[in-house]
Design a protein that fits this description.
The chain is α/β, with parallel strands linked by helices and 250 residues long. Helices cover 36% and strands 26% of the residues.
Amino acid sequence: MKLKIENINKTFLNDKTENKVLENINLEINNGEFVSLLGPSGCGKTTLLTIIGGFQKSEEGKVLLNDKIVTKPGIDRAFVFQNYALFPWKNVKENVMFPLKQQKVPKIEREKKLAELLEIADLKGKEKMYPHQLSGGMKQRVAVIRALACNPEVLLMDEPLGAVDFKMRQNLQEQLENIWTKNKITAIMVTHDVDEAVYMSDRVIVMSRDKGRILEDLKINLDRPRNRHCEEYLDYKDTLTKTLERCYDI
């Protein structure tokens, strides 16, 4: 077992009014699994992700990674944001190298790791380009390989493809799946896109607006790379779409 989420409760205070976003959330995520948190806006997906990342604390419950309680951010968990969060004054090489330098990784090892990551992300030859010179898709790939640079145990992604158009989104899903397949680390992704969840995930967790209640924990038993047009794929999409529709009735 890689990650355990036990009895998580989270409440926000807005103008002295309590808003309970998560109540008694329990999940177990295995080594090497790609899990998506799917649900409508306001269901607590990102809140849960940031608690796992150590950026927020819950009032009750705990997150355990390899049986150790998560209390703060750490290099064992890497976070990829929707807005890329690249340093605009650093080029691709410098952005990817940044966490390695922070960890005082020797230069020879840094260069070797950089070459491996650029190859995986199909960014070889782009090392000297700056973020303003990159397409949205290239920026997101840089953000992902920067997150992978320090060999985290868990990759956390908050709607990483939410800022790109439909066609680029599908292309990036395929590229990110390729990057993940070559690394096979545990990954948790927040999304509101049913097709993205089915294409990327081993499991899809559907959360409702009713304090993040889990309505579905669906295992996706499809070979990779996935055929978006096969009957089984479309059946998974239909199942999740119907579950999502229930979210709006609660």
